[in-house]
Amino acid sequence: MAKTLPVMKGKALWAKVFTPDTKFDSDGLYSIEVVIPEEEAQEVCEYLEGLRDERLAAEVKANPKAKSLSARPVFEQDLDKDGNETGNLKFKAKLKATVRGRDNNTYKQKPIVVDAKRTPMTEETLIGNGSVVKVAYEPVTYVMASSKQVGVSLRLKGVQVIELVEYGNKNATSMFDEEDGYQTEPVTGRTQAEDIDFDDGQADGEVEGDF
Fold first, then answer.
1. Is residue 207 helix, strand or coil?
2. How many Cα atoms are found within 13 Å in the side-chain-facing hemisphere of 30?
3. Which stretches of the chain drop beneath a pLDDT of 50?
4. What is the tally of structural domains in the chain?
5. What is the dihedral of CA 9, 14, 15, 19, to 10 degrees?
6. What is the DSSP string of 156-177?
7. CB neighbours of 184 closer than 8 A, spacing ≥ 6?
8. Looking at the domain assignment, is residue 101 inside a domain?
9. Rounded to two decimals, what is the model's pTM?
10. pLDDT tens digit string along 123-137?
11. What pLDDT is recorded for position 203?
12. CA 64 to CA 166: how far, in whole Å?
């Protein structure tokens, strides 16, 4: 049985979920930021902070010198163009396009991207800022030696687009009214999409591994 993953819902920001970004990682990195009103993000915050604090307590218990460690925030404040807080919180999920396995071989991976009916989407439809999405992720706690902080990262596993704000020409579809006639066919073939439950839920325990 597939493991139930935690899911958060909000508005997408800088979604790179079809083609990995190689600007800062030559192997490629998929990523998406999710913007959620602060009052709606409390459950997500409490869940992630709980995992982080458990890791911090375990590090201190294992090594008394670790008392100098501090907790890293699990979110960022969303700011407007003038640098003022908007009342929203930002959460970033990412996934390395190439990883090295325990057998020392390299493997390709990518997130699942589906529409509201869980039909797989293709890169022809780009997800613009402001799209309403659900993001399934795996939380991974870590210790950052350079800053002596304990935090939790979100490994991107899947994206469900509930309301699409398409990136690019926003007027492309507004030039016409709907008519009876040809409709594009959905992508066929089995994918891992059926293994991801986009209902809200929380994962159990701590997950380790590379992004």
1. coil
2. 24
3. 1, 171-172, 189-190, 202-211
4. 1
5. -170
6. EEEEEEEE--BSS-TTTTTTS-
7. none
8. yes
9. 0.79
10. 888 999 999 999 999
11. 40
12. 51
